[in-house]
Amino acid sequence: MTTDIVAPPRAKLYDKLLLKLARKAQSWRKLSVLTAAVGVLECTLNIWQFIKQPDLKSRTTRRRQLWIDQAKAANAGKTRIALVTGGNTGLGYETAKALVEAGYLTIIACRSVGKGQEAVDRIEKSTGIKGMAIVMSLDLSSQENIKAFIRDFKDLNYPHLDVLVNNAGVMDIPFMLTKDGYEMQFGVNHLGHYVLTLGLLQQLNKAEQGRIVILTSGAMFSSSNIRYDRLQSSVGYSRLGHYSYSKLANMLFIKALDRRLREQAPSSKITINGCHPGTCHTELFRSSKYLGPIQAPLALVFRSPLFGAMSSIYLALAPPGHELESTSGEYFFDQAPREPNPAVNDLEQQDLLWQKSVEFTGVDFKL
């Protein structure tokens, strides 16, 4: 997959600072402060990158089109199916749009069918491609709804599922519980996608090479473990701290599922990777007490949704024969493998997350 990827000037410094922050998280109790520090760091380095790479927008556009053209050529004459959660807006919309342009029948899974249809209409208008994007209702805060969605998807009788992009998420919200009684950020960002992913593994396994892409975040660096005792009540609730837990859970899940695929289903060609979009100007911040009211000026220091979506587009569209075909269990940022929070490599933490996820959902690995 020919690209013109060049590591941004911020890369080494960013990684060094985030790993220092992760070490600090082992003893620092104010997770909200550390998570906010990640955001400030990202915005500062965004400005640096914008200055050092003034051609960033044009380079991003060229790179995106190159990946689409390569995927179309590799998949000519083949049926390709993709599913993007939260594909109606922001990063998910940009990812869904690119998949449609690359020839994938793309399911936009979101809570509001109306908003999803608006996204489909925008995609069709901007690309001129009709009938390649459809909407399905999905509420990631309800395990019953997710399981119904999985049944409905299977009833469509698609031959396989090539790409699953777990993009939807919530951040910095007041304390509330999912319909199943778990803190909303952890419940949606991790548990909801956990149930969805395991429920669709068989369809992914039928693909030539099923790919799972999970959007995580640099916020995972601000926690060293997950307080499972703080997921069912408001005691000890932190809007940013619990977001950090959910993003650490995303990467622990990626590592844990990759291990199970390699150990229990060695013939499977399913890959699972995570990617961090950077701090982007999307609806994710709409609930923030401090950032929500100042969205317009933040656009000057935040990444655009297209730039933020580039890693998920890259992981989804790499054609057969590309090195990503055998890359799994990794963390990507700016379309390059990077060092995650060291805590995600802890096998005990991976297995504890898996144990708790089974306990909270009743769903386990089966292929």
TrEMBL record:
Key words, A-Z: Oxidoreductase
An annotated Gene Ontology molecular function: oxidoreductase activity
Top-rank taxon: Eukaryota
Range of residues in the leader sequence: none
Annotated protein name in UniProt: NAD(P)-binding protein
Species of provenance: Lobosporangium transversale
